[in-house]
Design a protein that fits this description.
The chain is 62% helix and 3% strand. By secondary structure, it is an all-alpha fold. The chain folds into 2 domains: 68 residues, Multidrug-efflux Transporter Regulator, Chain: A, Domain 2, CATH 1.10.1660.10; 52 residues. The termini are far apart.
Length: 140
């Protein structure tokens, strides 16, 4: 099947499929005129990647998962370890988002939201502490 058919069958855009080929996650065969020719196995791998990426696994995690999936001698503990590491990263991100939400909610609550020009939200943005992942930037 061609890339359009593979895209429809896997749920991935053709551009993503080309990218996955470029980085070596998939290797479809080429027909005599040079066009990609996707087999059912290729589409299955693409759907696997679509689901994996949808669950937030990184490209490198997906590469490892595909390798484990293809390895009949794999140990399920290897797969579980990879997924557990991902779960730890998800939990850390959730904690970051909860802290971020609490900060923004506090700012929203502190603002009267009326016709006056003073606004604690803008005051905090201009003078408040930097987030841990930011570097200081001068105001223009």
């Amino acid at each position: 099947m061609n890339i359009g058919e593979a895209a429809a069958a896997s749920g991935l855009p053709a551009k993503t499929i080309r990218y996955y080929e470029e980085i070596g996650l998939i290797r479809p065969k080429r027909d005599s005129n040079g066009y990609r020719a996707f087999a059912e196995d290729d589409v299955h791998r693409l759907a696997f990647l679509n689901r994996s990426r949808g669950l937030g696994f990184s490209i490198e995690d997906c590469r490892a998962l595909l390798g484990l999936y293809a390895d009949d001698t794999r140990a399920s503990e290897d797969v579980k370890r990879l997924a557990a590491d991902h779960l730890t990263r998800i939990d850390a991100r959730i904690a970051e988002l909860q802290a971020l939400r609490a900060t923004v909610a506090g700012l929203v609550d502190a603002c009267a939201g009326d016709g006056r020009p003073d606004c604690p939200i803008l005051e905090d943005l201009a003078t408040g502490p930097l987030c841990a992942h930011q570097k200081p930037k001068p105001l223009a």
